[in-house]
Design a protein that fits this description.
Blueprint lengths: L9 H26 L8 E5 L2 E6 L1 H5 L3 E6 L2 E6 L1 H7 L7 E5 L8 E5 L8 E4 L5 E4 L14 E4 L1
Parallel strand pairs: 1-9
Antiparallel strand pairs: 1-2, 3-4, 5-6, 5-9, 7-8
């Protein structure tokens, strides 16, 4: 007669571990959303030589015309960086430095003028912030939670 062994099966353990992993991920996403409440998001500054040319709240950025893009199997939309710079009074520049808090990325990206095309956008993130995105910006080079666009 076949006798069933007592105890927890490996399959049951795997399901428990998987369930705990999903719960942890959901908790982390929820905490991230709570920590970046829209009221706490600083305005995006446009600067040149240390002088603030303009500041835009996330609400003001949402008033700009948006451009959609698809990259890395995901899609998004946001205002073109060139439109934001123009609204800040930037007619010409040689280099653009994009800065963020460097919490989930390097927090800095330097683009030459010819790299800043109409396809480079400030993509609206689910967190209520913006990230830099464009067809020539690699996944590892992106800056999330952008706080400053510095022109030279």
């Amino acid at each position: 007669m076949y006798r069933r062994e007592q105890g927890i099966r490996p399959r049951t353990i795997a399901l428990i571990v998987l369930g705990l992993l999903f719960a942890f991920i959901a908790l982390a996403w929820g905490a991230e959303l709570l920590l970046a409440a829209p009221d706490d998001i600083p305005p995006l500054r446009v600067t040149r030589d240390g002088v603030v040319l303009a500041e835009f709240t996330m609400g003001e950025l949402r008033e700009f015309p948006t451009r959609s893009y698809s990259q890395f199997g995901k899609s998004g939309e946001g205002p073109m960086v060139l439109d934001v710079l123009a609204e800040a009074g930037v007619a010409d520049f040689e280099r653009l430095t994009v800065r963020g808090p460097a919490v989930r990325d390097d927090g800095i990206l330097v683009l030459e003028r010819d790299q800043v095309t109409e396809d480079v956008v400030l993509d609206f993130a689910n967190r209520g912030t913006v990230k830099i995105a464009g067809p020539d910006i690699e996944w590892d080079d992106r800056v999330r939670d952008v706080t400053e666009l510095e022109v030279e």
